[in-house]
TrEMBL record:
Domain Enoyl reductase (ER): 10-328
InterPro entries named in the record: ADH-like_C, ADH-like_N, ER, GroES-like_sf, NAD(P)-bd_dom_sf, QOR-like, Quin_OxRdtase/zeta-crystal_CS
Lineage start: Bacteria, Pseudomonadati, Acidobacteriota, Holophagae, Holophagales
SUPFAM superfamilies associated with the record: GroES-like, NAD(P)-binding Rossmann-fold domains
GO MF terms, alphabetically ordered: mRNA 3'-UTR AU-rich region binding; NADPH binding; quinone reductase (NADPH) activity; zinc ion binding
GO annotations of cellular component type: cytosol
Protein name, per record: Quinone oxidoreductase
Length: 330
């Protein structure tokens, strides 16, 4: 089979389209013929060496795809060759074929396409745990979303709005503003503007005597990393920041004294700590598919790039020029 590989860390130019052996499913595993593959910032981090790889090169990145079961390993029951499936947290997805543990497989309903599944699962499950687990959004909450036009960002804006929150989105360029407003945000600001002040103004209230009753949002969702301190400053006294990505670089250390003095809280988030069992995956994916089916969640596909041209997909994602999800097509 063919796969998108890398043998050293670096920029997109280190990626190579090469022939590798077909993987063989072991006990409790199946082999999936991929039809659509989700591209994520974590794939760039792995290529860059920020997430060191196990084993020997060449390495294959990717954790998210949809396709058809092509072969079934020993001991597998309830899954047959030809079944439509997807997964969001199984390695080596940037290939024409990938072996996946049955526990990580998500059966696809007939009305959910391969492309929609690959575009919504990892980022949709991420946005879902952010609004359900990291900070349980409730009606009336004020929310700041970084990279609001990105794959996770657009879904996060929609989910927070669906749950009754008032959303302020940050985007990298003016061409993305309307898309985020259409997704449910009440206001959108550009990253180059004073977005921290905009966040403080967004939810401030003034009593009849002219005193400011609150300043800053209830929760900030920060996937940029390098912006973490300003995100903390954008939250109200007693507010909350959820840090779940490093698209703009590693954050500076946070002084615990600052958190104490402002009564603010900082939470880390990682999808792998949420998808603990097959039941978790099926229940959470089921809710996502329901929202898509009902038209409550719009899946935006920014680009479809041939897997053989995967380096271009990496460049596209890192340029921050896209709105929505980048897919790799085998």
């Amino acid at each position: 089979m063919q796969a998108l590989t890398f043998s050293q860390y670096g920029g997109p130019e280190v990626l190579s389209w090469r022939t590798v052996p077909d993987p063989v499913p072991g006990s409790g595993e199946v082999r999936v013929l991929t039809r659509a593959i989700g591209m994520n910032f974590a794939d760039c981090y792995r290529r860059q060496g920020r997430y060191p790889q196990k084993g020997e090169a060449p390495w294959i990145a990717g954790y998210e795809a949809a396709g058809e079961v092509e072969a079934v390993g020993p001991g597998v029951t309830g899954i047959m060759v030809g079944d439509r499936v997807a997964f969001a947290d199984s390695a080596f997805a940037h290939a024409q074929r990938v072996v996946v543990p049955v526990a990580k497989l998500i059966p696809l309903p007939d009305d959910i396409s391969f492309e929609v599944a690959a575009a919504v699962l990892l980022q949709g499950l991420t946005a879902q745990y952010l609004v359900r687990d990291s900070h349980a959004i409730k009606a009336g909450d004020s929310v700041l979303v970084h990279a609001a036009a990105g794959g996770v960002g657009l879904l996060l804006v929609q989910m927070a709005s669906l749950l009754g929150a008032e959303v302020l989105g940050i985007v990298s360029r003016a061409s993305k503003v309307q898309t985020v407003l259409d997704a449910g945000a009440r206001q959108v600001v550009l990253f180059g503007e004073d977005w921290s002040q905009a966040a403080r103004d967004f939810s401030s209230q003034v009593d009849p005597a002219g005193l400011v009753l609150s300043e800053g949002v209830d929760v900030v969702y920060d996937s940029v990393g390098a912006t973490l301190q300003k995100s903390l400053e954008s939250a109200r006294t007693g507010g909350h920041v959820v840090f779940f990505g490093m698209a703009g670089g590693d954050p500076v250390p946070v002084d615990p004294r600052y958190l104490m003095d402002t009564s603010k809280s900082l939470t880390g988030g990682d999808l792998w700590n949420v998808l603990r069992t097959r039941e978790d995956r099926l229940q959470r994916a089921g809710e996502l598919f329901h929202w898509v089916r009902q038209g409550l969640l719009k899946v935006h596909i920014a680009a479809r790039v041939p897997l053989a041209d995967g380096a271009e997909a990496h460049r596209l994602l890192e340029s921050r020029s896209t709105t929505g999800k980048v897919l790799l097509i085998p």
